[in-house]
Write a structure and sequence with these properties.
alpha/beta, six-stranded parallel sheet, magnesium, UPP_synth-like_CS, magnesium ion binding, EC 2.5.1.31
Length: 246
């Protein structure tokens, strides 16, 4: 049974200004290995978990949910696992179009998709276009993403703007640099959740989470459920966010 959030929970999320949650979904492979199964089965279970968590986000009026599904460093994994991940990614895009539109979800892929095959790239564009006018939850999938890559490509865009005379060097400030990142259209991240027991950021949203609250849990991603998500949100509510002030 899905965890049903109360109206009180939804109102509190809105009142406490929890608008953007980002999740580092870690532990799929270990989940499978602990059960004597191949790692790819863990990724399939992780996909099922992601569907439940997206539904929870919709029910609780979270405006933006970002899921870190594949980093640039993940290309170092065994070839067969990567092939399986790419097939799962394509399957997820194809199978979820109806649900995305049903729940008024806009899908956005964040990352360097040029490394994916042409078929997958075309389908990414297709799903993004079909959900472009949806006005509910913005669902970001960070795929072939890294924080360093994001900042580097942002710097390149700034340099080009300066070279073309669209931007003066003195105009480059912290406040406007974010418009050159892949998340330029998004609100800052309020809460970062990492499953799987590791307590590091792993090259994720290095610029965007400067003042995010961080929540780490030992629960492996396939076992992470709506109640666990609520615990992370409850933790966020206990924090006093001063953003460097008193």
């Amino acid at each position: 049974m899905l965890y049903k959030s109360s109206l009180k929970n939804r109102q509190k999320i809105k009142e406490e200004n929890l608008r953007h949650v980002a999740i580092i979904m870690d532990g799929n492979g270990r989940w499978a290995e602990k059960r004597g199964k191949i790692r790819t089965l863990g990724h399939k279970e992780g996909f099922k978990t992601a569907r439940k968590i997206v539904k929870f986000a919709v029910e609780n009026n979270i405006e933006i949910l970002t899921l870190y599904v594949f980093s640039k460093e993940n290309w170092k994994r065994p070839k067969l696992e990567i092939i399986a991940l790419m097939k799962l990614f394509f399957f997820a895009l194809k199978s979820e179009i109806k649900n995305l539109n049903k729940y008024n979800i806009r899908l956005k892929i964040i990352g360097d998709i040029s490394s994916f095959n042409e078929r997958l790239q075309n389908y990414i564009y297709k799903v993004e276009k079909k959900t472009l006018n949806n006005t509910g939850l913005i669902l970001n999938i960070a795929a072939n993403y890294s924080g360093r890559w994001d900042i580097t490509q942002g710097v390149k865009k700034v340099i080009k703007a300066v070279q073309k005379g669209f931007l003066n060097i003195e105009q480059i400030q912290e406040q406007n640099f974010s418009q050159y990142l892949s998340t330029s259209e998004l609100l800052p991240v309020d809460l970062v959740v990492r499953t799987g027991g590791e307590k590091r950021i792993s090259n994720f949203f290095l610029w965007q989470i400067a003042y995010s609250e961080l929540y780490f849990t030992d629960i492996l991603w396939p076992d992470f459920n709506q109640r666990d998500f609520q615990h992370a949100i409850n933790y966020f509510f206990t924090r006093e966010r001063r953003f460097g002030g008193i």
